[in-house]
Automatic annotation (TrEMBL):
Residue ranges constituting the DUF4130 domain according to the UniProt record: 79-241
InterPro entries listed in its UniProt record: DNA_repair_put, DUF4130
Record protein name field: DNA polymerase
Native source species: Phytopseudomonas argentinensis
Pfam families named in the record: DUF4130
Source superkingdom: Bacteria
């Protein structure tokens, strides 16, 4: 088996894959090794002879395939690069079914594309910026996020479009991005100082946000399975409202659903409206 070493980026993989295709190397002959994983690959020391007869053959594939492979490369798994090369190999040899969802490889490709798109949506929906003192220097807003896939660099431009020249920083366990008001800087790995800044900043408005979130929570409409599907539990610990959610759900199950309103709201003076009121009140035509 031939070990193909590259830097772990899609551009690095693409150049290495193009070279292997020109040499006629089949997917089963290759082991993809990121530089940081060299010592962990059991096959890194095994080399396969290069087929001289097929060397430097032209490689032509649809542009759409390259775009799909680049997006799918953000999906984290042990065999992320092997699948991409297998699909590339098949299409380069005329088997375009590899791009289709009905194909065994194409099905896995489209599943990864869907997971990457959903993870980008999670970044946009569940990221919480914390403001910093403008006189302290550095970014005005910071945030900590733990994505399941490598979507930060490609998906964080969403915030640049919405925050204008306001400077901000997003740090993750793996990489980070910094917007200085004009351009987006991506760092992989994420600098430790960025991680400390994102995790160590307190939000002075957090108490107000928690009061708003708790008072607008509607226990009568609670559907735990839907909630956990739309807001996966793995994000709760990095959301300011995350610690409130289990308590609010517990209160709903304990009887708050009868009132159809949050406990703090129900305790205030005034007329109480039960969750069943719509069943007894006349409906105007």
């Amino acid at each position: 088996m031939h070990a193909v070493h590259f830097d772990g980026s899609f551009a690095g993989w693409r150049d290495a894959a193009r070279a292997q295709l020109r040499q006629g190397m089949a997917p089963h002959q290759l082991s993809w090794v990121q530089d940081s994983q060299e010592n962990q690959d059991l096959f890194a020391g095994l080399e396969a002879p290069q087929p001289a007869a097929a060397a430097d053959r032209p490689v032509r594939v649809p542009r759409a395939l390259i775009e799909q492979l680049e997006s799918a490369a953000r999906f984290r798994c042990a065999q992320r690069w092997a699948l991409l090369y297998r699909i590339l190999w098949r299409v380069a040899n005329g088997d375009h079914a590899a791009m289709l969802a009905g194909d065994i490889d194409g099905s896995e490709l489209h599943a990864r594309l869907k997971a990457v798109r959903r993870e980008a949506h999670h970044l946009h929906a569940f990221l919480r910026f914390k403001p910093r003192d403008a006189t302290a220097g550095g970014p005005e807003l910071v945030a900590w996020h733990e994505p399941a896939h490598d979507i930060l660099a490609s998906a964080s431009g969403h915030f640049a479009e919405r925050l204008g020249r306001q400077t901000w920083l997003i740090a993750t366990p793996d990489d980070g991005v910094y917007w200085d008001g004009e351009k987006l800087q991506h760092a992989n790995p994420c600098p430790p100082e960025w991680q400390r800044l994102a995790q160590g900043t307190d939000d002075r408005n957090e108490a107000m946000w928690l009061a708003y979130y708790g008072s607008t929570f509607n226990p009568a409409r609670l559907n735990r399975s839907v909630l956990e599907t739309n807001m996966p539990v793995r994000f709760w610990r990095n959301l300011p409202e995350g610690p409130l959610i289990p308590r609010l759900m517990s209160q709903a199950r304990a009887g708050a659903q009868v009132d159809g309103q949050a406990e703090a709201v129900a305790a205030r003076p005034g007329k109480r409206i039960s969750a069943d009121a719509e069943k007894v009140l006349p409906v105007r035509q």
